[in-house]
Amino acid sequence: MDILGILGWIVIIIVAVVVYSFMARSKNRREMERNRRDLRDGKLNDSQLKEIYRKLDSYKDDPFFAVASYGLFYKEYYQLANENYEAFKPEMLKRGLLR
After folding, report:
1. Rounded mean pLDDT, 58-65
2. Domain ranges of the chain
């Protein structure tokens, strides 16, 4: 393989990573916003609330999950996950779902 071929593959990989990052960030941000809106509107039942809270509790500080779900924007994931975690915690306490 010549140098131009190698550079071409590097450019393709970089473009793929950037595109993946934008797509993953967009999808996961919409899901987080929808969950928060459903919480605010009272549309979550206890099992849905527990499942969302459990995921947030498990993954809010996980660097692998942050990169996998937000790509290059992983720092934004930490901020949003912690904001959502803090928003869901009072509702969990209010409903008596925390042990």
Report:
1. 92
2. 21-94
What average pLDDT does the chain have? 93
- pTM, rounded to two decimals: 0.79
The token duo for 84 is 């959502």
**Among all chains, which residue has been given the structure tokens 């919480």?**
39
The CA-atom distances, in angstroms, between 87 and each of 7, 12, 51, 91, 98 are: 46, 40, 14, 8, 14
Please report the beta strands in 2-95, taking only residues with DSSP state E, as ranges in sequence order. Answer: none
* 48 backbone dihedrals φ, ψ, rounded to 5°: -65, -45
CB-side neighbour CA atoms (13 Å) of 38: 13
Tell the burial category of 62 from Cβ atoms under 10 Å away from its Cβ (0-12, 13-18, 19+). middle
